[in-house]
């Protein structure tokens, strides 16, 4: 079983809540975005190449009933560079944050893609922390290929130029990756290290069925039927094999279904969280 470890957590901007130190660790820090509101807390975990603030559209749709608190995961966004990107390291971060900052008691946890895998592994290894589970496009078995960003543009003179270069390189999904854009002393670039995230993706390849089936809290699996990451056949199998699991499938939507249809996904999540 994975064990927790101390992390330092800080607020991610003036509108995202106060600074908070879970514990002091001079070698590593995580950030979070608290989207605020009077609703019940819902922990959100982004996927590879994502950022905590990328949940903004869905958080707005879920408000005011639900207050989304999104953790910016290791090796992403404002997090310090880190060598350890094993799945257990992500899991330990989230367990420490949830138990130390958002506790006491279990909370609903939402995750997309890699974040979905972290969420269902959290439910399996730390069932006392998770009351309900929402997994968006998080497979129980991850197959190659992985996304290799090592040949993407590293710097551009402006954000507009970086957007144009990335759009030319990867097409309509550039906006997702541009959540990680920042101005550096030598121009605009992306905050993640491509080599590190390549290792992180490779570490997640393979069979995680035992963790998907390793918890018994109610679960909602959200699937975009045009996804190239989670095949529809696997999504149906995941829902069929795990007790108390609903499948919400969205025709014509892809891997970023919650960005493509935030209102529809939020409606499915609200209905699920109401029980």
Q: Can you walk me through this structure?
A:
It is built from 10 helices and 12 strands. By secondary structure, the protein is of the alpha/beta class. It folds into 2 domains: about 10-140 and about 195-275, Rossmann fold (3-Layer(aba) Sandwich), CATH 3.40.50; about 150-190, no CATH class. The strands form 3 sheets. Strands 1-2-4-3-5-6-11-12 form an 8-stranded mixed beta sheet, sandwiched between helices. The two termini are about 30 Å apart. The model is unreliable at about 1-30 (pLDDT under 50).
Classify the helix fraction into a percent range. 25-40%
Shape: globular
Number of strands: 12
Query: Which ranges are low-confidence, i.e. pLDDT below 50, for 5 or more consecutive residues?
Result: 1-28
Q: Treating each run of at least 4 consecutive H or I residues as one helix, how many helices? A: 10
How many domains make up the coordinates?
2
In terms of DSSP E residues, the strand content is 15-25%
| Strand order in space, largest sheet | 1-2-4-3-5-6-11-12
User: What order do the helices and strands follow?
Assistant: EEEHEHEHEEHHEEHEHEHEHH
The name of the CATH superfamily of the largest domain reads Alpha/Beta hydrolase fold, catalytic domain
| Averaged pLDDT | 89
Q: Compute the gyration radius: what is it?
A: 18 Å
- The termini sit apart by 29 Å
CATH architecture of the largest domain, please?
3-Layer(aba) Sandwich
The CATH class of the largest domain: Alpha Beta
Structural class: alpha/beta
CATH topology term of the largest domain: Rossmann fold
């Amino acid at each position: 079983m994975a064990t927790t470890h101390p992390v330092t957590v800080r607020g991610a901007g003036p509108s995202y809540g106060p600074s908070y130190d879970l514990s002091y660790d001079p070698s590593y820090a995580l950030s979070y975005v608290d989207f605020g509101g009077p609703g019940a807390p819902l922990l959100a975990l982004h996927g590879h190449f994502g950022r905590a603030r990328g949940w903004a559209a869905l958080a707005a749709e879920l408000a005011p009933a639900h207050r989304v608190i999104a953790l910016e995961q290791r090796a992403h966004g404002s997090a310090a560079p880190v060598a350890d990107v094993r799945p257990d390291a992500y899991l330990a971060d989230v367990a420490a944050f949830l138990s130390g900052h958002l506790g006491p008691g279990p909370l609903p946890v939402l995750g997309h893609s890699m974040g979905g895998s972290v969420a269902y592994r959290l439910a399996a290894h730390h069932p006392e922390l998770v009351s309900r589970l929402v997994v968006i496009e998080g497979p129980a078995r991850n197959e190659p290929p992985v996304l290799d960003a090592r040949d993407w543009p590293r710097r551009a003179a402006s954000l507009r130029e970086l957007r144009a270069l990335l759009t030319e390189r990867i097409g309509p999904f550039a906006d997702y990756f541009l959540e990680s854009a920042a101005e550096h002393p030598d121009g605009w670039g992306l905050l993640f290290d491509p080599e590190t995230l390549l290792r992180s993706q490779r570490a997640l390849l393979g069979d995680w069925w035992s963790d998907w089936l390793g918890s018994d809290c109610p679960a909602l699996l959200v699937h975009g039927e045009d996804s190239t990451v989670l095949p529809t056949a696997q999504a149906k199998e995941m829902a069929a094999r795990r007790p108390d699991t609903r499948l919400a499938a969205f025709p014509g939507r892809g891997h970023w279904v919650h960005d493509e249809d935030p209102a529809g996904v939020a409606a499915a999540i609200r209905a699920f969280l109401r029980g």
